[in-house]
Amino acid sequence: MKRSPLVILLLTVLLDLIGFGIVLPLLPTYAKDLGANPFMIGLIAAIFSIMQFIFSPLWGKLSDKIGRRPVMLISIFITAVSYLVFSQASTIPLLIFARGLSGIGSANIAAAQAYITDVTDSKNRSGAMGMMGAAFGIGFIIGPLIGGLLKHNYGIQMVGYVSAALISIDFILAIFLLPESNTSAKKMQFGFLKKRTADSEPRRSTSIFLGEKLKEYGEGLKLVFSSRPLALLMIANYIYTFAIVNMQVASILLWKEYFSASDQQIGYIFAYVGIWSVVVQGGLISKLIKKLGEHKLFLWGHLFTFIGVFFVPFAPQTSLFSIGLVILFFFAIGTSLVAPINLSMISLYSYKEKQGQILGLSQSVNSFARIMGPFSGSILYGMNFHAPYIVAGILTLIGALIAFSLFKYKIEALDHSHKAA
Prior knowledge:
Growth Hormone, Chain: A; mainly alpha; 15 helices; 2 domains
């Protein structure tokens, strides 16, 4: 494994996620302060994932063509600008615009994942994906703590400024320290930045542009579903992410209304889950994979997650910080295993020379689940507070069945010309 570029990549991802974590927990209350109704609050939460859904495969495919580095630089810059806009977002439309812009920039996760596939071999890839997951965990531990402190003492503008500053540092580090990993990509020429000449390609209309993008999605899906293990992994990705988000959106309401937890205590719960995620994804997962293999851990991750979501609302009201933490331990371990292993297995089963495109599509599938999950969770919670967790439990069991069915497929990358059975 090429340690140096991977370390720099993970550092830039970590800074990006800390900035994201600073803002995210403050969005619902800030939107409400601006006069947003429940639907608008949901839209503000969803617009980030909507933009990720649209742009993840585009960034991934572009990184296959021009390289990972330029894509990372452009997207990081966009993210920094989004937080500057957020610092001045005193109206709901401007807040929606800021979150949408942030979603476009943060959709670079597909390019980051492709970067990992470039600099790791098949034996080390799941461990590297786990390290990226650990960066997520650290970001969600540190970010919310910083965000709460800044908003309480200095106001929402400072939250935006600090997040923008962190991403700017990320941008500078990437410029000077992040090398290109995709050696087969075309060299990016300054010519494409020059003004179009009379004989250059004409501008395309919006309808043509959207049609081309839909065609790209269609090609990506056709590529994925030409390989049965890839198709199963993509379906499992959607089901699992939907289940988790469906459960998460109801958790804060459940903890406050049923378990009578304060906002500060809820922050401790998120930190508790984040710490376990860092422990597992920061190094333990590599040892477990070497001992048990991806297939077994993928299955066990789903089973652990089932315990961690299904039993949450059935704990006694006074047991949130006893029985509740035990249940959430299973949730933390399960999610720490499933997410990085799913990504790793998708990359390992992917067609050669198409990993950026396929990982981008995977991220879009993930984002689509994050768009739909909150609506499901909130509606089900309104019907019965047990419902989101029961549905999440059932979906994780379906994911476990898919994981079990993958045991018969040997892990190997496919040539683009090959069509798996």
